[in-house]
Amino acid sequence: MPSPAAGANTFHSIWRVVSRIPRGRVATYGQVARMAGLPGAARTVGWALGALPGGARIDGRAIPWHRVINASGRISPRARDAGGEGGRQARRLAGEGVRVSRAGRIDLGCFGWDGAYAGASAAGRGRSAAARKGPASRVPNCSSQRRA
Prior knowledge:
Elements: H1 4-19, E1 27-28, H2 29-35, H3 42-50, E2 57-58, E3 61-62, E4 68-69, H4 85-95, H5 108-111, H6 129-132
Parallel strand pairs: 1-4
Antiparallel strand pairs: 2-3
């Protein structure tokens, strides 16, 4: 059986990945698990986000729990607040320019994050902030999908 410290380290590694998801982008639970070195542990990502202390920060960055969605591109309801948490998540995402359908669906092709430009690898650490900025760090246009 793993020690409590092992669980805390697991959650911390998940929170670190989530803290790197850029504004206007989303990642799936499974994607976050893989990036945290926990392939197949999407549910663990959900548990870690559920245990996230209010106001928690990693390297000075807030942990944007609202940017994590399920593999089908939908907002997953939260067990502790099934009626309101999904709406809160949708509002926060919309405030960042992410389009959320009435059914809680997000276009992963348009708003999905690929892990780039977020300091996830040592190779990108030596570049200036201007050099690191790229398509994954900007809010996507996706204008061809806008409806009147």
